[in-house]
Amino acid sequence: MTLPPFPGRERYFRTGGVRSCAAWSAEVPTVQDPADRPVPIRPHPVLARRAALRFVLLIGVVSAFSDMTHEGARSITGPFLGSLGASGLVVSVVAGGGELLGYGLRWFAGRAADRTGRYWAIAFFGYTLQMAVVPLLAVSGNWPVAAALIVTERVGRAIRIPTRDAMTAHAAHRLGGGWAFGVREALDAGGAMVGPLVVSLVLWLHGSDRSAFAWLGIPAALTLLSLVFTWRQFPNPADLEAEAPAQLTDSAPRPPAFWLYLAAMGLIAVGYADWPLIALHFSEERMVGSTVAPVLYAVAMAAEAVAALVLGKVFDRVGLRSVLVVTVLTAAYAPLVFLGGLPLAVIGILAWGLGMAAQESIIKAVLTTIVPADRRATAFGLFDTGFGVAWFVGSILLGVLYDTSLVALAVVSALVQLAALPLLVLTRRRLSTTASKG
């Protein structure tokens, strides 16, 4: 069968592909198959891959500006609440409750996106809500108002994360899931590294938390501008799929591998310490001064950015085995950080950054191999909700152990993470069995 020439090929190459695809519905030629049904001609795979990479880079830039904003703010929200008269308990409840909401609402946001198909609209709402409240902290007059804004920022993040991940997953079929999520996470981590450094610079120059929050309005505005640009270029990211995603009934069950995988990742979440606990340890043990702690966090974020790219490539070659190896390596972070001196603690920070990279890249890339395309936002949201609840439980557990015994904290953290390995092996077998049947 000879295919007619593909009109608009130059325009497809020039624009990156997807925006043109949406406008070509009337001009893409068709041919007749033996059953006399029209068959649309799909874009050339090389051009489609370039379009997918361009989308991932653009959504990664959005994530970079976003993380620059909210991670910069989070680096000083604790001291800021304290300066407004909040107690340590209030700071802890605000931080923990915000994180719980930030994860717990993702299932609802993802389900709403899949049911309505309005991925961009929900993403815009979440990003706008999150970015708007950060500079408003500069004018908050008391700690209850500031606490409400801090929690609202986490809610905005919960709303936009599942849709962002689902749209990124469309590019995974062209680029490889590991590389698509790895590139985006590398840019994300880059923003998370720069944000606290910018805040430190503003504090050094102006000495005011409020000035820092006000300056963060700049990357917040850039987040929304880059989001608009990405939407205009790729109004329908589903066009990036190699094939149109099959539509499932609402009652279609999730694969058993999904629940096994969620249980495994929940164990890892329980064993993973929050950065504030690590920073508190450095402070109480007088390992570093207060001005050096943000630099160590930036080092962890730099390690996360590099690791995300490497892990993405490795995942696309070896699949779920990469998650098994990373789990073993990152289980060592707690003994290194909490039981060693500064040199070992720095190595532990790098291992901690490796684990954070895996959580936002290859761990999510695995989901694209488990869940059908039209249910990804729901799956990402449900996964993040379960992961976040487990993380919250782990935060309480590790906090109690920190006040009791550092040795117990290190041992429990490592063992709980290693307990995920059998579940990951079972998940891999389930996926292999499903693939062989398919």
Automatic annotation (TrEMBL):
GO-annotated cellular components: plasma membrane
Question: Where mainly located?
Answer: membrane
Nucleotidyltransferase: is it a keyword of this entry? no
Name-wise, this protein is MFS transporter
Q: What InterPro entries does this protein's entry cite?
A: MFS, MFS_dom, MFS_trans_sf, Uncharacterized_MFS-type
What PROSITE patterns does the annotation carry? MFS
Membrane topology classification: Multi-pass membrane protein
